[in-house]
């Protein structure tokens, strides 16, 4: 059962990634149907690619409102004949009024080698009409009283559900080593490998929720508000140009760089020790996961000392009981960034020399300012032609090709733009910790 659950979660993640719809969340459990209008408590993280938590509540938007209403629902074909394989990625034909151009999308399928062809349906609530019906209406006080939210949480409801029109078969070949990066090796030098561990096929019944979309709501002084904003469509996501992807990346990098700045205020000796401990953590996956969990708990207002001595040492260096929330968030952000980078790259970046990091920093600054980075003529050894970080630096120069890379992208976790963002933030964060004694 756990094996089937893992395969289901891996496949739904690959489907969502292939569709390119940033507003969809993959379903991780086949038993969860995420019915429309179900209320959901969302715990956000300010960090890129971090684990946002979604908890279904035992009531719906209908239960919350002290008035009767009839939501308008729409069922439409999202993609016809959608299929995926590790070799060919995902493809299908857009349906339901979406541009009839052929979708040809690549996907790293994690632990899934292929998925049989199926039409994907979308069931949606007309949010604009719903907001006209419900905005400014009073909510039931007894229902609201049962919903507790902290400062990092908000309330939402299920506005969209994507499901399969017929049964779907997922298959996985015998256990083998698979390169984590596929054609991405042309752009960045990564040494990590992963093993597929699922050895059987799995059949998903028809009408199973593959993914869902949420809509945030506000309740103030007992009155409901459903804010209306523009959500990019599937076609818009696919047609983004390299320049548009870069603009969004630069905005995110600039915003999150501010969150990292408190690291610069630490004493030089503390920064050096923090960096050395982080390097050791990057070599120990279990310890790094413990540290991430501990820092998540700290963000929620409670924590237990991690069993890993390395993770505990990192927390001691921060002196969490006295550290400002801004410093805790900065350290949390840096850990999350390093963990999000592809295998092999975090250790290489965190241990590179000061002059190598300064070249990276100059390239990132040029990218933010001019939208283009270039390799300087004089390069430290790791960035020279056969150096271990050459391709990572070269990737920063390929911003004019972000959309082109998307078509053949096979890396399981990151889109090209996502990788650009975390790579730049890693450089900026490590630059704040790096000291001259580390050179």
From TrEMBL:
It is a multi-pass membrane protein. One of its GO terms (cellular component) is plasma membrane. GO terms for biological process: programmed cell death. Residues 7-227 form the Gasdermin pore forming domain. It is found in: Cell membrane; Cytoplasm. Residues 260-380 form the Gasdermin PUB domain. The keyword Transmembrane applies. Belongs to the gasdermin family. This is Uncharacterized protein LOC114443892 isoform X1.
């Amino acid at each position: 059962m756990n094996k089937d659950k893992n395969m289901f979660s891996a496949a739904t993640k690959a489907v969502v990634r292939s569709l390119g719809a940033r507003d969809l969340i993959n379903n991780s459990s086949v038993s969860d149907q995420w019915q429309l209008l179900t209320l959901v408590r969302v715990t956000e993280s300010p960090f890129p690619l971090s684990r946002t938590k979604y908890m279904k509540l035992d009531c719906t938007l209908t239960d919350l409102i002290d008035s009767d209403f009839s939501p308008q629902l729409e069922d439409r074909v999202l993609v016809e004949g959608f299929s995926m394989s590790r070799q060919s990625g995902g493809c299908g034909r857009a349906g339901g009024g979406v541009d009839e151009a052929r979708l040809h999308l690549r996907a790293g399928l994690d632990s899934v080698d292929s998925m049989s062809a199926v039409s994907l349906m979308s069931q949606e609530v007309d949010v604009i009409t719903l907001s006209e019906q419900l905005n400014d209406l009073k909510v039931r006080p007894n229902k609201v009283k049962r919903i507790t939210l902290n400062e990092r949480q908000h309330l939402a409801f299920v506005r969209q559900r994507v499901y399969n029109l017929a049964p779907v078969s997922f298959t996985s070949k015998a256990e083998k080593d698979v390169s984590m990066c596929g054609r991405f090796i042309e752009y960045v030098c990564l040494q990590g490998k992963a093993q597929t561990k699922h050895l059987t096929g799995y059949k998903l019944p028809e009408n199973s929720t593959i993914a869902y979309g949420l809509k945030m709501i506000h309740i103030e002084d007992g009155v409901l508000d459903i804010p209306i904003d523009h959500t990019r469509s599937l076609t818009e996501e696919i047609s983004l140009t390299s320049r548009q992807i870069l603009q969004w990346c630069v905005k995110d990098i600039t915003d999150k760089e501010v969150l990292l700045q408190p690291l610069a205020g630490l004493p030089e000796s503390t920064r050096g020790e923090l960096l050395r401990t982080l390097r050791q953590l990057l070599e120990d996956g279990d310890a790094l996961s413990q540290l991430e969990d501990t820092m998540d708990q700290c963000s929620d207002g409670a924590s237990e000392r991690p069993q890993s001595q390395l993770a505990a040492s990192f927390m001691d260096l921060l002196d969490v009981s006295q550290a400002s929330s801004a410093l805790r968030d900065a350290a949390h952000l840096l850990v999350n960034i390093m963990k999000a980078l592809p295998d092999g790259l975090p250790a290489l970046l965190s241990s590179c020399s000061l002059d190598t990091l300064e070249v990276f920093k100059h390239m990132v600054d040029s990218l933010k300012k001019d939208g283009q980075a270039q390799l300087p003529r004089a390069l430290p050894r790791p960035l020279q032609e056969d150096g271990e970080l050459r391709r990572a630096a070269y990737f920063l120069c390929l911003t004019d090709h972000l959309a082109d890379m998307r078509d053949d992208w096979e890396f399981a976790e990151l889109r090209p733009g996502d990788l650009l963002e975390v790579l730049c933030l890693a450089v900026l964060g490590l630059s704040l910790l790096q000291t001259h004694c580390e050179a």
